[in-house]
């Protein structure tokens, strides 16, 4: 069975640009969460989507936005990129937002902002 | 914001040894999870715990959900070189949907 897939694998952008990251959850999973992981730290929660609705938002500026599509895939968008946005962006999927909170992570997208 | 405390940052053990890691918080968590991350990869779920006092094993790994619900422990027995990686604890607060709060991780090195 395919796990969580993310694209692209790596990305280099310039300050001020915009970026879109994509995620496909495990088949049958309806919830997708996005995390940011900077070097030397644990992942930090950005968003959770379940059944196309935002169910949670972390402490990130409005430059960060996301959406979930009818097939449960998701996009994370970041506008007006800053150097500090350089990080590994992880997508995690789970079956529901209900009693099972086991989240399965993809390999991540490595974003470098120059 | 909420924080999970993991220390030390790094651990060095000899192949075949057992190792224990703990994770503490000032807040009560309803779910504890342990992940392992290797370079260039996303975190891989090792064990999930849902009840205070719960003890769960996955092969050579055993984890426990602390009675106070403010801590969790992971034990790796008879370590092997492929146990090398960064071990993260993660917790979920009541009403936090699927949001997980992660510790900073412990880097484990295993000497052959």
How many E-type strands of chain A? 11
Specify the structural class of chain A: mainly beta
Specify the helix fraction band of chain A. Answer: under 10%
Q: Tell me roughly what share of residues is in helical segments of chain B.
A: under 10%
Contiguous runs where pLDDT drops below 50 for at least 5 residues of chain A? none
In terms of quaternary structure, the protein is: heterodimer
What Rg of chain B, in angstroms, do the CA atoms define? 13 Å
Strand residues, percent of chain B? over 45%
The assigned structural class of chain B equals mainly beta
Q: What is the straight-line distance between the termini of chain B?
A: 40 Å
Q: What would you report as the Rg of chain A, rounded to the nearest angstrom?
A: 13 Å
Q: What is the number of helices of chain A?
A: 0
Mean pLDDT of chain B: 93
The ordered H/E elements of chain B are EEEEEEEEEEE
Helical segment count of chain B: 0
| Sheet of most strands of chain B | 6 strands, mixed
List unreliable stretches of 5+ residues of chain B: none
Based on CA inertia axes, which overall geometry of chain B fits? globular
Head-to-tail CA distance between termini of chain A:
37 Å
Q: What is the overall silhouette of chain A? A: globular
Structural write-up:
The complex is a heterodimer of chains A (114) and B (112). Chain A is an all-beta fold and 114 residues long. Chain A contains no helices and eleven strands. Chain A has strands at 5-7, 10-13, 19-24, 31-37, 44-50, 53-57, 64-68, 74-78, 87-94, 104-105, 109-113. In chain A, the strands form two sheets. In chain A, strands 2, 4, 5, 6, 9, 10 and 11 form a seven-stranded mixed β-sheet that branches. In chain A, strands 1-3-8-7 form a four-stranded antiparallel β-sheet, with no helix packed on it. In chain A, a hairpin with a 5-residue loop joins strand 7 (64-68) and strand 8. The model of chain A has no long low-confidence stretch (mean pLDDT 93). Chain B has 112 residues and is an all-beta fold. Helix content of chain B is 0%, strand content 51%. Chain B is built from no helices and eleven strands. In chain B, strands 2, 4, 5, 9, 10 and 11 form a six-stranded mixed β-sheet that branches. In chain B, strands 1-3-8-7-6 form a five-stranded antiparallel β-sheet, with no helix packed on it. Chain A binds chain B through residues 4, 31, 33, 35, 40-45, 48, 50, 55-56, 58-59, 90, 92, 94, 97, 101-108, and chain B through 1, 4, 31, 33, 35, 40-45, 48, 88, 90, 92, 96-105.
């Amino acid at each position: 069975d395919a796990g969580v897939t993310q694209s692209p694998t790596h990305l280099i952008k310039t300050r001020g640009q915009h970026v879109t990251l994509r995620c496909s959850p495990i088949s049958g999973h309806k919830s997708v969460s996005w995390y940011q992981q900077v070097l030397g730290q644990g992942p930090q929660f950005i968003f959770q989507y379940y059944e196309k609705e935002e169910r949670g938002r972390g402490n990130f500026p409005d430059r960060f936005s996301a959406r979930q599509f009818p097939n449960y895939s998701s996009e994370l968008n970041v506008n007006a990129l800053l150097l500090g946005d350089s990080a590994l962006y992880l997508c995690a999927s789970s079956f529901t937002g209900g009693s099972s909170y086991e989240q399965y992570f993809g390999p991540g997208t490595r974003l470098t902002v120059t | 914001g909420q924080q999970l405390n993991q220390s030390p940052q790094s651990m060095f053990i000899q192949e075949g040894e057992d190792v224990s890691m703990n994770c503490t918080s000032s807040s009560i968590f309803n779910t504890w999870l342990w992940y392992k991350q290797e370079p260039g990869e996303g975190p891989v779920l090792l064990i999930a715990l849902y009840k205070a006092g719960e003890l769960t094993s996955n092969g050579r790994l055993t984890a426990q959900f602390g009675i106070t619900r403010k801590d969790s422990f992971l034990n790796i027995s008879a370590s092997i070189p492929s146990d090398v990686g960064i071990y993260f604890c993660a917790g979920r607060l009541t009403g936090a949907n699927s949001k997980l709060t992660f510790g900073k991780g412990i880097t484990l090195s295993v000497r052959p």
